[in-house]
Write a structure and sequence with these properties.
The protein is α/β, with parallel strands linked by helices. The protein contains 12 helices and 13 strands. Helix 2 packs parallel to helix 4 (73-84) and helix 7 runs antiparallel to helix 12 (287-305). The longest helix has 19 residues, at 2-20.
């Protein structure tokens, strides 16, 4: 009798937990994030499993002008279908009718404004993967539309919640230098937004908002961006091409601390924050900070165009 009771209660507990899971929809299957996130959410046996939500539907999307979208969108869509039995739909409104919240995963920021507009119209909370947009104007319009519709959202690089950033949050920080990959995408007006958004996000995680002026020096091999914060603090980002590791140096009044190369850079922290956000509807990154990062990149582009002259954030 006791054995039979166990057999009945264990499936019941699993069923109740599954029924409580949020239903998530994916927009854009042209990034490896859709595979990694779905495995973490849908596979309880995954080492990085995050409970509380499951991906149930997807809209393929894709941008034929972007090589990394054009060459991957079908491949990742097929993996979602065959491995995870994800339902695919023909448009974003249909997707939104089937889910509680949305992961906007399209690899390019160019597509995000038009796609986010439809998600906001459906009233669904949304995580917008990096880069939020391809221009400062699009980023601001996304924020405006979300506020107008009363829909919560946030955007972030996974590095913001990784050990690389969290372990380097130190008291009395007077300045920060970060570095990471900086490959370019010719269709993105803000060149830094395509990939250098990662080390820029780490910079803002450690420095916070308040940058007033930016200078940018660019060569074929790298971009060096220096920001001057209120109060005299200085933050720099070095975006290296084609690719590099990530790293951080934190300056303090009495010492200088460099990040350990062994610090993890995975998706675990980000996915946990996404699910917490969908449950609470409270974004872990304020929209104002995300928009300042785009103003930072916009000022960098204007500085570069002016031969490295300082440019104010606008």
């Amino acid at each position: 009798m006791r054995t039979g009771l166990l057999l009945l209660t264990v499936p019941l507990a699993v069923a109740v937990a599954s029924a409580a899971d949020l239903r998530l929809g994916i927009v854009g299957t042209d990034t490896s994030h859709v595979i990694a996130f779905t495995e973490m959410l849908n596979d309880p046996q995954s080492p990085g499993h995050v409970p509380g939500a499951r991906v149930v539907a997807a809209y393929k999307g894709g941008n034929p002008d972007i090589e990394s979208s054009r060459t991957r969108v079908d491949k990742y869509a097929e993996q979602l279908k065959t491995r995870w039995n994800i339902e695919f739909v023909d448009d974003i409104p249909t997707l939104c009718s089937k889910v509680d919240a949305v992961l906007l995963e399209s690899v390019d920021g160019i597509s995000h404004l038009s796609q986010a507009r439809q998600i906001f119209a459906a009233g669904k909370p949304v995580f917008i993967d990096k880069p939020l947009a391809a221009t400062l104007e699009d980023a601001r319009e996304i924020a405006r539309l979300a506020k107008e519709a009363g829909v919560p959202w946030f955007s972030a690089s996974s590095l913001r919640f990784s050990e690389l950033a969290t372990a380097m949050k130190l008291p009395d920080t007077t300045g920060v230098a970060t570095w990471g990959p900086g490959p370019l995408e010719p269709h993105h007006h803000l060149s830094l937004a395509w990939y250098a958004i990662h080390p820029i996000e780490v910079l803002y995680t450690l420095m916070g908002t308040g940058c007033e002026e930016v200078t940018m020096t660019s060569t074929p091999d790298a971009d060096e961006v220096t920001g001057r914060w209120r109060g005299g603090r200085i933050g720099t980002v070095r975006a290296l091409r084609p690719y590099s590791t990530y790293g951080v140096i934190v300056f303090r009044p009495k010492d200088i601390v460099q990040s350990d190369p062994k610090l993890k850079e995975g998706y675990d922290g980000l996915v946990k924050e996404i699910i917490r956000f969908f449950q609470t509807r409270v974004p872990p990154v304020p929209p104002e900070e995300t928009l300042e990062m785009f103003a930072f990149m916009d000022a960098a582009e204007r500085s570069k165009a002016a031969g490295g002259a300082p440019a104010q954030l606008r």
